[in-house]
Design brief:
Blueprint lengths: L8 H12 L2 E2 H8 L3 H13 L3 E6 L7 E6 L1 H5 L5 H16 L1 H23 L4 H14 L4 E6 L8 H5 L5 E6 L5 H6 L2 H14 L2 E6 L8 E6 L2
Antiparallel strand pairs: 1-3, 2-3, 4-5, 5-7, 6-7
Protein name: Iron-sulfur cluster biosynthesis transcriptional regulator SufR
Keywords: Transcription, Transcription regulation
Pfam family, one: HTH_24
Length: 224
């Protein structure tokens, strides 16, 4: 995959698209002072990597022209410091209001999030609710997946789980969108368990934890 860590024409193209929004081959060639042919080669590589997309600019009856814009994946390649800002803000808040009040604030936040999840998840079968929760978590940046398991913890097939209304499930997240915050404020992970339980209206137990050095967070989900 193409990255933006090393200086290159591709990096220059990504930076220019970030600033300008969209550009044609000719505009990029003039800006970067390279040939249009070279620009096209770089654009082809970047589009293959999913970092940019093109839009057709039809001009009359001739050959269509194209403009190029960053994809969401392309934007995600640029570093941000949102986590640092969030941790700093929470540190300042904790110093200002005290530990007890801070705990109440974090709990209120997760209660609100649980209600938001609950509204999207609905009241279907537990399997359906778990599936919808995983979709929501993926959209928020968590690399999440779920599997039905039997009484011994072994993964079972979907057909078997449909015939077992009391089936249990494992929800696994390999990426944490708030990892830096969780390191500084591990209590948010405890609230997360409560949030999942409230959103799914079921019992939730932690099986794995990124904060403890494991490569994933895992949750056992089962009916009350």
């Amino acid at each position: 995959m193409t990255t933006i860590q090393q200086p290159s024409t591709k990096q220059d193209i990504l930076h220019h698209l970030l600033k300008q929004g969209k550009c044609t081959v000719q505009e990029l060639a003039e800006r970067l002072q390279v040939s249009p042919q070279a620009v096209r080669r770089h654009l082809k590589d970047l589009e293959t990597d999913g970092l940019i997309v093109h839009e057709v600019l039809q001009a009359g009856m001739g050959r269509p022209n194209y403009s190029y814009v960053l994809s969401q994946e392309g934007r995600d390649r640029f570093p941000d410091r949102y986590d640092d800002f969030a941790v700093s803000l929470l540190d300042t808040l904790a110093e200002t209001v005290g530990a007890d009040q801070m705990g109440s604030i974090l709990r209120k936040q997760w209660e609100r999030k649980a209600m938001e999840y609950r509204d999207h998840i609905g009241n279907g079968a537990l399997k359906e609710r778990v599936s919808k929760l995983v979709e929501l978590r993926r959209a928020e940046g968590y690399m999440a997946e779920w599997h039905p398991i039997d009484a011994n913890g072994a993964v079972i097939g979907s057909v078997q789980s449909e015939s077992n209304p009391a089936a249990r499930f494992i929800l696994t997240e390999y990426n944490c969108a708030i990892a830096h915050i969780a390191e500084s404020f591990p209590s948010v992970c405890g609230h997360e368990l409560e949030m999942f339980a409230a959103a799914l209206d079921c019992r939730v137990e932690r099986t794995h934890w990124l904060v403890n050095g494991e490569h994933r967070c895992g949750y056992l989900i089962q009916p009350k």
